[in-house]
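Re: weekly structure request thread

Next one in the queue (176 aa):
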Amino acid sequence: MDLAQVLGRVTGVHLDTPRGADVVHSIRVDPSWLERGEPVEVTLPRNLRCAECDGGGCDRCGRAGAVSLWGRDEPPGVVEVTLPRRTADELVREPTVVLRIPERGGLPEPSSGQIRGMLLLRVTASPEPDASVIRLSAVPSRRGPSAPAQPKSQLLLGAALLLLALVLVSYLVSRR
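Done, posted below.
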């Protein structure tokens, strides 16, 4: 069992759990942002390519090749992520990294009881970043000076590790 499966079990997001359609979105960011592991905010378009068929059309996306993430009257979706750190040499060899973001993809059928699909965010180092990507460390904190901004992914990981520790302690106490 790999780390993704273990964390999936702790957080309740399994890679093989039935869910809505996975979607793909590609962005360009400045290479220095990847070298520093900057937090960014990405504004998503309403329709994204289906990850299963890569836009060709399949049963998963109803042969459309794209999946709507929200209704026409809803505001655009925004995702905050911390970019993984990459050295300049790593960026030369592989300028693109794919981030898997759970429950930010396609909506499941209303009566299915499933969770949303995954967003597969393809991040490519480029001297011209996309306008839909904002480097959060360059924006004044929205939370005020007293609270340091933490990306949601770090908070989720911390919560998952805390939950794992509580389960382990409760198991050890019950064994006495």
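Residues 15-140 form a domain with the HSP40/DNAj peptide-binding domain fold (CATH 2.60.260.20). The radius of gyration is 18 Å.
Next request, please.
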